[in-house]
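Subject: complex prediction, re-run

Hi both,

The earlier run crashed halfway through, so I resubmitted it with identical inputs.
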Amino acid sequence: MQESVIMKIHYGTALGAVVLVAIHILFRMTQNFSESLQYESVIANYHFLPYAIMLELILILLSVHGFNGLRVILIELKQGVGYEKAVNYGCIAGIAVLVAYGSRTILMAGFGM
Amino acid sequence: MATITPKLSDEFPLTIASSTNSVTLRISKFNPKTDSTATFVEFKVPVQKWTTVLDIILAVKQHLDPSVAVRYSCRQASCGSCGMKINGKPALACYTKISELNSNVVTVEPMNNFPILRDLAVDFTQFFSTHKKLKPYIIRDDSEVTGDTKEFLQTPKEVEEYLQFSYCIKCGLCNSACPTMATDTSFIGPQALAQAYRYIADNRDNGKKDRLKIIDDSHGIWRCHFAGSCSQVCPKGVDPAMGIQLLRGYLLGFRK
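This time it finished cleanly. Structure:
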C-alpha cells in the first residue's frame, strides 16, 4: 500500500476517533459522572446497539491509528528490509489481535455472557 | 627562473595585524580510519569585527595546524561547501561572523547526519545521490529551442511559486539540522524534498507524477515531523519545511 494512502487512513482514523470519543465522553454527561461508570450503566451501554457499534468503531479506529503510529516510530528508529517487513506485519497482527479481543469484550457484554 | 614563495601570513593580515580581540577556536579533530572518538583542539586566534569563522579556521590551518581538514571554496555563501556546526548550530563558516556569535569561544564540529571524512569535512555522496534521485531538472517532452520561441515564458506569479526553493545551494545544513535524519538514515531529507517541490511547482515541468511516486515512500515525505529546524538554519532563506507541507498537499489531494 502506498504511504500516502496509509497516512490518509492515519489522519482519517484520528479525526474519526476524536469525534466518536467526544460523543462517548458527552454520553457521561447524560447522568451523574460516577453513576455513569457503575456496572449497570456500563452494561446498559453495551446492550444499546448503536452505542455498542460506536464502541466497536472507536476500538477499530484507535487500533489502526495507534499501531500505525507505532509502525512509524519503529521504522524511524531502525532501518532494514527484513526489520521493516517484520514491523509492518507485526503491526497488522497487533491490530487484528486488539480488535478481536476488544470485539469479544463488546460482544460478551452485549449478549450478557 | 626564480620562484617566489609568498608568505602565508600575507593572505591573512586581518588575523595577524593590529588585532585587539581574540577568541578561542575549538576544532573537532576526527579521522575515522585511526580515531575512535573526536577530540577538540584549541587555538587562540586574533579577530577583527568582520572576521568570519572560516577566516579563523583557515588562519589556524595556515599558521598553527595544517592538518585541519575543512572544505571551502567561494567564501561568499554561494557554493555551500563550508557547512559545519558552529557553537552547536549548523551554519556556513564563511557566512558566520565571530562578532555575531557573542562568545569568546568558537566551537566548530562537522555537520550532523553526514558520515565524517576527516575533522570538519563530511561525505556528501548519499546527499547528492538522493538529490539526483528526485530528478532535479525540468521534465517535458518538447524543448524550448523548437519553434519560434526560445524560452518558456512564465508570469511573475508562476515564478513566485518556486523561486525561493531555487536558491538552494546544496550546503546540507537543512539535512544536518533535521531530527528525523538523525534516526532515519533512509529518510529523503528536507533538501531533496524541497527540490522536489521546486520542480513540481514549476509550471514548465511535467515530472510531477514521477517525483510524487518517489517521495511517497515509507522513508519519504511522511516521515517529516515538521520540526522546522531545516528552515531555521538555511543560509539562503529557503523554507524546506513549507515546501514539504505544500508537497503533502499534492499527495493528499488539496493541490493539483
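Chain B touches chain A at residues 180, 183-187, 216-223, 251-252 (CB under 8 Å).

- K.
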